[in-house]
């Protein structure tokens, strides 16, 4: 059974919906999944100043928070973050910055990694955000598994670097988004399964 950690940060819930879809599909395929959101680090006054942000933080209050051990445990890791000016969120970066001890012991290497993101606009930085996560995976010595155009569904969402949701086009996940997420997690589990065979 492949152990999959889904590690993500979400302010408004898009990333959470994407991560939840990935987890459901992985579990349906027999994987053992840890679905873990990254701890909020923004000041409470910033969170409370935006109703959707405050609502999502309240929704996640009792859900398990990502720990470095979740990566140590995993055979495969899918990481997600919304775009912030073309980069990953500071919240996800803060979590990544706690991984130094595991990195130093070589415990982040030789796992399968893939990434997902969301942005308000189509050309608002999805590729740079996904590539930022892929850069980190390279430093881990990870085996980066981009979706490429390895299935017809990738010609619909059109993102070979990972999965990206454009929230300005439709806030909720649509069939194209779900197909791309299902494709990514299936590919990650298939390749992790071959590596662990
Ligand atoms: C500070 C900040 C910066 C952002 N920068 C961008 C950006 O550069 N391009 C873009 O298209 N959307 C940008 N967005 C929009 C978010 O990426 C978008 O709302 C994302 O889907 C949020 O994901 P979430 O619902 O998981 O939090 C930004 C949002 C915030 C709050």
From TrEMBL:
Enzyme Commission code(s) on record: 1.6.5.2
Domain (Flavodoxin-like) ranges: 4-185
Domain of life: Bacteria
Keywords: Oxidoreductase
InterPro entries, per database record: Flavodoxin/NO_synth, Flavoprotein-like_sf, Flavoprotein_WrbA-like, FMN_Rdtase-like_dom
Entry annotated with the keyword Oxidoreductase: yes
GO molecular function: NAD(P)H dehydrogenase (quinone) activity
Assigned protein family: Belongs to the WrbA family.
Protein name stated in the entry: NAD(P)H:quinone oxidoreductase
